[in-house]
Amino acid sequence: MSSTISGNTEKFAEYKTLKVTIEQSIAHIELCRPAELNSMTTEFWSELPDAVRTIDEYVLARVIVISAQGKHFSAGMDLSVFANMGKDFQGEPARRAEKARRMILKLQDAFNALEEVRMPVLAALQGGVIGGAVDMVSACDSRYCTEDAFFCIKETEIGMTADVGTLQRLPHLMPQGLVRELVYTGRKMGSQESKNCGLVNHVYPDQETMLSEVMKIAQTIASHSPMAIAGCKEMLNYTRDHDVANSLNYIATWQSGMLQMPDVMEAMGAAQEKRAPIFKDLLP
Fold it and tell me: Quick count: other Cβ atoms within 10 Å of Cβ 283?
Protein backbone atom coordinates (compact mmCIF):
# COMPACT_ATOMS: atom_id res chain seq x y z
CA MET A 1 0.00 0.00 0.00
CA SER A 2 1.47 3.35 -1.02
CA SER A 3 2.06 6.09 1.53
CA THR A 4 -0.71 8.16 -0.08
CA ILE A 5 -3.26 5.37 0.26
CA SER A 6 -2.07 4.49 3.76
CA GLY A 7 -2.45 8.11 4.83
CA ASN A 8 -6.02 8.20 3.59
CA THR A 9 -7.03 4.89 5.18
CA GLU A 10 -5.62 5.80 8.59
CA LYS A 11 -8.56 8.16 9.02
CA PHE A 12 -10.88 5.13 9.10
CA ALA A 13 -9.64 4.44 12.64
CA GLU A 14 -10.73 7.96 13.65
CA TYR A 15 -14.35 7.51 12.64
CA LYS A 16 -16.86 7.75 15.48
CA THR A 17 -19.82 6.05 13.81
CA LEU A 18 -18.25 3.49 11.47
CA LYS A 19 -15.76 0.63 11.61
CA VAL A 20 -14.05 -0.10 8.28
CA THR A 21 -12.11 -3.29 7.51
CA ILE A 22 -10.79 -4.48 4.15
CA GLU A 23 -9.96 -8.11 3.36
CA GLN A 24 -9.75 -10.06 0.10
CA SER A 25 -10.94 -7.08 -1.98
CA ILE A 26 -14.08 -6.67 0.18
CA ALA A 27 -14.57 -3.52 2.25
CA HIS A 28 -16.78 -4.09 5.29
CA ILE A 29 -18.34 -0.92 6.70
CA GLU A 30 -20.07 -1.47 10.04
CA LEU A 31 -22.28 1.00 11.86
CA CYS A 32 -20.70 0.76 15.29
CA ARG A 33 -22.89 2.55 17.83
CA PRO A 34 -25.15 -0.34 18.91
CA ALA A 35 -25.96 1.17 22.31
CA GLU A 36 -27.45 4.17 20.49
CA LEU A 37 -29.21 1.94 17.92
CA ASN A 38 -26.72 3.16 15.32
CA SER A 39 -28.60 6.43 14.97
CA MET A 40 -27.18 8.79 12.38
CA THR A 41 -25.35 11.61 14.13
CA THR A 42 -23.75 14.61 12.45
CA GLU A 43 -20.47 12.68 12.14
CA PHE A 44 -22.18 9.82 10.32
CA TRP A 45 -23.29 12.05 7.46
CA SER A 46 -19.67 12.99 6.78
CA GLU A 47 -18.00 9.69 7.58
CA LEU A 48 -20.12 7.44 5.35
CA PRO A 49 -19.54 9.28 2.06
CA ASP A 50 -15.90 9.83 3.00
CA ALA A 51 -15.42 6.10 3.57
CA VAL A 52 -17.07 4.86 0.38
CA ARG A 53 -15.47 7.51 -1.81
CA THR A 54 -12.02 6.83 -0.36
CA ILE A 55 -12.48 3.12 -1.04
CA ASP A 56 -13.48 3.95 -4.60
CA GLU A 57 -10.87 6.62 -5.28
CA TYR A 58 -7.95 4.45 -4.18
CA VAL A 59 -9.49 1.14 -5.37
CA LEU A 60 -9.19 -0.39 -1.91
CA ALA A 61 -11.84 -3.02 -2.67
CA ARG A 62 -14.04 -4.45 -5.42
CA VAL A 63 -17.17 -4.76 -3.29
CA ILE A 64 -18.53 -2.88 -0.26
CA VAL A 65 -20.63 -4.64 2.38
CA ILE A 66 -22.51 -2.46 4.87
CA SER A 67 -23.79 -3.96 8.13
CA ALA A 68 -24.37 -2.85 11.71
CA GLN A 69 -23.44 -3.99 15.17
CA GLY A 70 -26.07 -4.77 17.75
CA LYS A 71 -29.74 -5.71 17.69
CA HIS A 72 -30.85 -3.10 15.15
CA PHE A 73 -29.38 -1.88 11.90
CA SER A 74 -30.25 1.76 12.51
CA ALA A 75 -32.93 3.90 14.13
CA GLY A 76 -32.33 6.57 11.50
CA MET A 77 -31.59 10.23 12.11
CA ASP A 78 -30.22 10.96 15.57
CA LEU A 79 -32.24 13.36 17.72
CA SER A 80 -29.24 15.67 17.97
CA VAL A 81 -29.43 16.33 14.24
CA PHE A 82 -33.11 17.26 14.52
CA ALA A 83 -32.26 19.53 17.46
CA ASN A 84 -29.61 21.34 15.41
CA MET A 85 -32.09 21.70 12.55
CA GLY A 86 -34.57 23.27 14.93
CA LYS A 87 -32.03 25.87 16.00
CA ASP A 88 -31.58 26.91 12.38
CA PHE A 89 -35.27 27.75 11.95
CA GLN A 90 -34.76 31.43 12.62
CA GLY A 91 -33.82 34.57 10.73
CA GLU A 92 -34.92 35.97 7.38
CA PRO A 93 -37.11 33.34 5.59
CA ALA A 94 -35.41 33.30 2.19
CA ARG A 95 -31.90 32.91 3.59
CA ARG A 96 -33.08 30.37 6.15
CA ALA A 97 -34.71 28.33 3.36
CA GLU A 98 -31.61 28.51 1.16
CA LYS A 99 -29.49 27.22 4.02
CA ALA A 100 -31.95 24.42 4.73
CA ARG A 101 -31.87 23.38 1.07
CA ARG A 102 -28.07 23.14 1.11
CA MET A 103 -28.20 21.05 4.27
CA ILE A 104 -30.70 18.59 2.74
CA LEU A 105 -28.59 18.30 -0.41
CA LYS A 106 -25.57 17.48 1.78
CA LEU A 107 -27.51 14.73 3.54
CA GLN A 108 -28.65 13.36 0.18
CA ASP A 109 -25.05 13.34 -1.04
CA ALA A 110 -24.08 10.92 1.74
CA PHE A 111 -26.32 8.26 0.19
CA ASN A 112 -25.77 9.33 -3.42
CA ALA A 113 -22.18 8.22 -2.84
CA LEU A 114 -23.38 4.62 -2.50
CA GLU A 115 -24.74 4.77 -6.05
CA GLU A 116 -21.87 6.76 -7.52
CA VAL A 117 -18.94 4.54 -6.49
CA ARG A 118 -17.77 2.05 -9.09
CA MET A 119 -18.14 -1.09 -6.99
CA PRO A 120 -21.41 -2.75 -5.85
CA VAL A 121 -22.66 -1.98 -2.34
CA LEU A 122 -24.45 -4.79 -0.47
CA ALA A 123 -26.49 -4.08 2.68
CA ALA A 124 -26.86 -6.74 5.41
CA LEU A 125 -29.71 -5.75 7.72
CA GLN A 126 -31.06 -6.93 11.06
CA GLY A 127 -33.68 -5.60 13.45
CA GLY A 128 -35.02 -2.13 12.80
CA VAL A 129 -34.28 -0.33 9.53
CA ILE A 130 -35.99 2.93 10.33
CA GLY A 131 -36.34 6.38 8.78
CA GLY A 132 -33.01 7.52 7.36
CA ALA A 133 -31.85 3.90 7.33
CA VAL A 134 -34.45 3.16 4.65
CA ASP A 135 -33.10 6.10 2.64
CA MET A 136 -29.64 4.61 3.02
CA VAL A 137 -30.34 1.02 2.02
CA SER A 138 -32.47 2.14 -0.92
CA ALA A 139 -29.27 3.51 -2.46
CA CYS A 140 -27.43 0.18 -2.15
CA ASP A 141 -27.20 -2.30 -5.02
CA SER A 142 -28.69 -5.25 -3.11
CA ARG A 143 -30.24 -5.82 0.31
CA TYR A 144 -30.30 -8.91 2.56
CA CYS A 145 -31.90 -9.23 5.99
CA THR A 146 -32.55 -11.44 8.99
CA GLU A 147 -35.93 -12.87 9.95
CA ASP A 148 -36.34 -10.26 12.69
CA ALA A 149 -35.72 -7.31 10.37
CA PHE A 150 -38.39 -4.71 9.71
CA PHE A 151 -38.53 -1.54 7.64
CA CYS A 152 -40.32 1.63 8.69
CA ILE A 153 -40.61 4.96 6.86
CA LYS A 154 -40.86 6.94 10.08
CA GLU A 155 -40.71 10.49 8.72
CA THR A 156 -44.45 10.80 8.01
CA GLU A 157 -45.30 9.82 11.56
CA ILE A 158 -43.10 12.57 12.98
CA GLY A 159 -44.62 15.25 10.78
CA MET A 160 -42.25 15.52 7.83
CA THR A 161 -41.78 14.24 4.29
CA ALA A 162 -38.83 11.87 3.78
CA ASP A 163 -36.22 13.85 1.87
CA VAL A 164 -32.98 11.84 1.60
CA GLY A 165 -33.90 9.29 -1.08
CA THR A 166 -36.64 6.92 0.08
CA LEU A 167 -39.40 8.52 -2.02
CA GLN A 168 -37.13 8.72 -5.06
CA ARG A 169 -35.59 5.23 -4.96
CA LEU A 170 -38.14 2.87 -3.41
CA PRO A 171 -40.61 3.20 -6.33
CA HIS A 172 -37.87 1.68 -8.53
CA LEU A 173 -37.50 -1.25 -6.13
CA MET A 174 -41.07 -2.05 -5.07
CA PRO A 175 -44.65 -1.75 -6.37
CA GLN A 176 -45.94 1.84 -6.32
CA GLY A 177 -49.05 1.02 -4.32
CA LEU A 178 -47.08 -0.67 -1.56
CA VAL A 179 -44.55 2.16 -1.39
CA ARG A 180 -47.34 4.67 -1.01
CA GLU A 181 -49.03 2.63 1.71
CA LEU A 182 -45.80 2.37 3.69
CA VAL A 183 -45.10 6.09 3.27
CA TYR A 184 -48.59 7.28 4.15
CA THR A 185 -49.11 4.96 7.13
CA GLY A 186 -45.60 4.64 8.55
CA ARG A 187 -46.32 0.99 9.37
CA LYS A 188 -43.61 -1.63 9.79
CA MET A 189 -42.90 -4.03 6.94
CA GLY A 190 -41.45 -7.34 8.08
CA SER A 191 -38.72 -9.43 6.51
CA GLN A 192 -40.93 -11.87 4.60
CA GLU A 193 -43.05 -9.10 3.10
CA SER A 194 -39.90 -7.22 2.14
CA LYS A 195 -38.65 -10.30 0.30
CA ASN A 196 -41.98 -10.96 -1.37
CA CYS A 197 -42.09 -7.45 -2.80
CA GLY A 198 -38.47 -7.56 -3.96
CA LEU A 199 -36.88 -5.07 -1.55
CA VAL A 200 -34.51 -7.71 -0.16
CA ASN A 201 -32.96 -10.63 -2.03
CA HIS A 202 -32.80 -13.20 0.79
CA VAL A 203 -33.91 -13.59 4.41
CA TYR A 204 -31.62 -15.40 6.87
CA PRO A 205 -32.35 -16.85 10.32
CA ASP A 206 -29.77 -14.73 12.16
CA GLN A 207 -27.11 -12.08 11.69
CA GLU A 208 -24.15 -14.45 11.76
CA THR A 209 -25.59 -16.59 8.98
CA MET A 210 -26.55 -13.51 6.99
CA LEU A 211 -23.09 -11.96 7.14
CA SER A 212 -21.46 -15.25 6.19
CA GLU A 213 -23.72 -15.67 3.15
CA VAL A 214 -23.49 -12.03 2.06
CA MET A 215 -19.71 -12.24 2.22
CA LYS A 216 -19.86 -15.27 -0.09
CA ILE A 217 -21.87 -13.21 -2.57
CA ALA A 218 -19.34 -10.39 -2.23
CA GLN A 219 -16.48 -12.82 -2.86
CA THR A 220 -18.12 -14.02 -6.07
CA ILE A 221 -18.53 -10.43 -7.26
CA ALA A 222 -14.92 -9.64 -6.36
CA SER A 223 -13.73 -12.59 -8.43
CA HIS A 224 -15.12 -11.10 -11.64
CA SER A 225 -13.54 -8.43 -13.83
CA PRO A 226 -13.88 -5.14 -11.93
CA MET A 227 -14.13 -3.41 -15.29
CA ALA A 228 -17.15 -5.52 -16.21
CA ILE A 229 -18.76 -5.02 -12.80
CA ALA A 230 -18.25 -1.24 -12.92
CA GLY A 231 -19.82 -1.18 -16.38
CA CYS A 232 -22.80 -3.21 -15.17
CA LYS A 233 -23.43 -0.85 -12.25
CA GLU A 234 -23.11 2.21 -14.48
CA MET A 235 -25.57 0.78 -17.01
CA LEU A 236 -28.11 -0.44 -14.46
CA ASN A 237 -28.22 2.96 -12.76
CA TYR A 238 -28.44 4.78 -16.10
CA THR A 239 -31.19 2.49 -17.41
CA ARG A 240 -33.25 3.02 -14.26
CA ASP A 241 -33.29 6.76 -14.96
CA HIS A 242 -33.59 6.77 -18.79
CA ASP A 243 -35.66 5.15 -21.52
CA VAL A 244 -34.61 2.05 -23.43
CA ALA A 245 -33.43 3.86 -26.55
CA ASN A 246 -31.14 6.23 -24.66
CA SER A 247 -29.85 3.38 -22.52
CA LEU A 248 -29.00 1.25 -25.55
CA ASN A 249 -27.22 4.20 -27.14
CA TYR A 250 -25.23 4.76 -23.94
CA ILE A 251 -24.06 1.14 -23.67
CA ALA A 252 -23.01 1.18 -27.33
CA THR A 253 -20.91 4.30 -26.72
CA TRP A 254 -19.53 2.87 -23.46
CA GLN A 255 -18.49 -0.40 -25.10
CA SER A 256 -16.73 1.37 -27.95
CA GLY A 257 -14.15 2.53 -25.43
CA MET A 258 -14.44 0.24 -22.42
CA LEU A 259 -14.72 -3.18 -24.09
CA GLN A 260 -11.13 -4.31 -24.45
CA MET A 261 -9.85 -7.87 -24.86
CA PRO A 262 -7.48 -8.58 -21.91
CA ASP A 263 -10.24 -9.32 -19.35
CA VAL A 264 -12.32 -11.27 -21.88
CA MET A 265 -9.33 -13.40 -22.89
CA GLU A 266 -8.38 -13.97 -19.25
CA ALA A 267 -11.92 -15.10 -18.39
CA MET A 268 -12.07 -17.46 -21.36
CA GLY A 269 -8.58 -18.81 -20.75
CA ALA A 270 -9.28 -19.44 -17.09
CA ALA A 271 -12.47 -21.33 -17.97
CA GLN A 272 -10.61 -23.53 -20.44
CA GLU A 273 -7.81 -24.18 -17.96
CA LYS A 274 -10.27 -24.74 -15.11
CA ARG A 275 -8.67 -22.14 -12.84
CA ALA A 276 -9.78 -18.92 -11.20
CA PRO A 277 -9.28 -15.87 -13.44
CA ILE A 278 -6.95 -13.09 -12.35
CA PHE A 279 -8.02 -9.56 -13.20
CA LYS A 280 -6.25 -6.27 -12.63
CA ASP A 281 -7.89 -3.73 -10.35
CA LEU A 282 -9.33 -0.55 -11.75
CA LEU A 283 -7.03 2.46 -11.67
CA PRO A 284 -7.26 4.89 -8.74
Answer: 5
